[in-house]
Amino acid sequence: MIIKTAHGAGGHATAELIERVFAARFDNPILARMEDAAVVPGSSRIAITTDSFVVTPLFFPGGNIGKLAVCGTINDLAMSGAIPKYLTCGFILEEGLPVETLEKVVESMAAAAREAGVQIIAGDTKVIEGKTSVEGTKGVEGTKGVEGTKGVEGTKGVEGAKGVEGTGGLYINTTGVGFVPEEREIAGPGGLVPGDAILLSGNLGDHHAAILSARMGISNEIQSDAQPLIGIPDALFAAGIRVRAMRDVTRGGLATVLDEFARASGVVIEIREKDIPVDPAVRAFCGILGLDPLYMANEGKMIAVVAAEQAEEALEILRQLPCGRDGAIIGHVHETGEDKIARVALRTGIGGLRALRALSGEGLPRIC
């Protein structure tokens, strides 16, 4: 079974698709009402985020577009200090998409939501034209025989190449809602103070390398790091750690996030190359292709800026969690000064300083 235009028409085919693919996997009392809007308990402080996912390929080592959509949205909520509670999801389906593919994606979304304790409470489905099939090339006719005492046979015609059928794509938009406990206060990117420590939750570049490997047909052991990060903020706040700012490190990479923080706070950030965790397989991959892990996308890593005197305690908390076991203190916040070469600087392995600025241009399109 494949997706057809009728599946987006709002009639019997639409209802059948919703029942077969979505209702059984996202089942909860709120969604089961099948109303045009979900009514849920509220909070005095609500965090809301929305995101769209267009990753290519749909399936990659360590995940797929569905897992990515749920984890990415949950992580954006968590970085604001919120406890994620609800998700809505909109699906743009192209004609020709196999329903079995959609089912696998939705199953991954349901599993990721269950892991994070989040309910998917509303959604929408639209169907658009699929990718156009590629027609085969026209055959070449043979030459005409030459008459004579003994005729010369003409050459045989050459068949055209076979046409390639189009396959439907899949795009997902998610909106997330979370509740922020009253006692949680985060200054944000503009609240960094000289002396603050920069904590990174784990290895850089895994997702970027996994996607690129899949596109290039490179066989290796690299897996995407797509995962929910809600455990880290919850544990830090529960321990009384003063968190100045948090951010998941996605498109643009670590260097871009730190540049935004440094500019917002009017400070300088210095990080140490020797302390930045990168998986050996990813480091080797980067060496072959000339990539820099500091500018590569991730989908399950975050930085937390904390008060200097609590840095070691925060690191210990981080490393006790599965999503933070490779965590490290990678640098500190400094005052501005004429001796600083940039807002963000990398202390290299040989002791020099390398200026780091926000990513310029396109890193890797359709990575999330």
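The above is record 1. Record 2 follows with the same two-line structure.
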Amino acid sequence: MDRVNELIATATADLVTKEDLATLQRLQEEFSAELATLRGRVDALEARTAELESNQFSTTTKLVGEAIFALSDVFGDTAGDRNNSVFQERVRLDLQTSFTGRDILHTRLATGNAGRFDLGTGGVDTNRNGVLDPSERSAEGFQTFNLTGRGANDNGVVLDWLAYYVPVGPARLYVSATGGVHSDYAATVNPYFEDYDGGNGALSTFASENPIFRIGGGAGAALNFNFGKGGGILKPSALTIGYLGSEPNNPGIGQGIFNGDYAALGQLNFNLGDRIALAGTYVHGYHGAGSTLFDAGGFQGQDVTGRNIPVVGTSQANAMSATNASSSNSYGISAAIRPSDKLSISGFVAYSDVTGFGSNDDREVWTYGAGIALPDFGKKGNVLGFFGGAQPYSFTRAGRGSRDIPYQVEGFYKYRVSDNVSITPGVIWLTSPGQNSDNDDAFIGTLRTTFTF
């Protein structure tokens, strides 16, 4: 219609006939009701947009939240007598801020009361105080929602993660101010089991990712260099390097970013075609006296002795000398194969060589596992998963009766109720807990409900 008016105004009437004008008039009359409706909807949308702009929380930030309700119990002659059924919770609120559209700042608050079960498996009294402190007990059966950021699990609110992702030239930079772990920036290659310790993956910390990623954590930085974007068999892959310090904010002697506990990671991961992923990981760590190996940099806090609480593995694998520092060199391989859209197979193996700075402080630690996941099992969004393997263990300094491999088998079924709600029943079976076959097998049953918003 605007074009017709232009033609009329420029005296080019020979390009517009009376029939054209009649057709336009008829169409205008025919769609008058629809035009009026559209005009009203546009006016309403403009009014609502103006209201949102004047009352919005932020122009740069959105809130992503997760709440977990978990009903759990442990069964077994030893463990069952030492525990009761519990109803626990954990809540995470993540403020995600972008300043350029390509970067993202995570400011995450967390709280919860999900303490872990006492399996009654003993431990290593490295402090020689006659008492097994929380860090000296086995971390077998540790579930992801037990990670509340506080060892007390008293519903205290903590800033458990503050990190920034931003592209820098051909690389992607990750900077963590607190609560950083290696799996924040390095590919774990464990699809459907790994959910960043959230409530939509595996139940246990062992099944969710290779324990090598639990060595160290805290504050630091990492770079990802991507390659392999061509049309060949090598799909987008990456070279990753990172450094995280566990005591970055303490200026004391033997503390700080570089003089305190730290873990440096290097990883190559390859995606071969669309169905095979491989990753080779190396982690070098320094651990002060009284440290634990798989402590995620003290993410779960400390016990009354000041030792970081481990989040996976036996006490023999975790507890280091109470009087001397140690260094560790860890090597891991992770792989995932997706034969079809309805089947995923993944697994890992890791070895740690710990060198103590005192006599008889050296030791070796092994762990391995594999799992099968059936995505969209029964309904789109559901996942049926089975994972089994050996929790991190060490025979080097194990005493008599503590030289058995501690196996774990886990099965779970995540049922997607809606886009924001899932229910996951599951069972964790632990054999030879505490590396001792004389200890009764333990069975942990959990019904986990996860709300995301």
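The chain has two domains: 1-56, 92-380.
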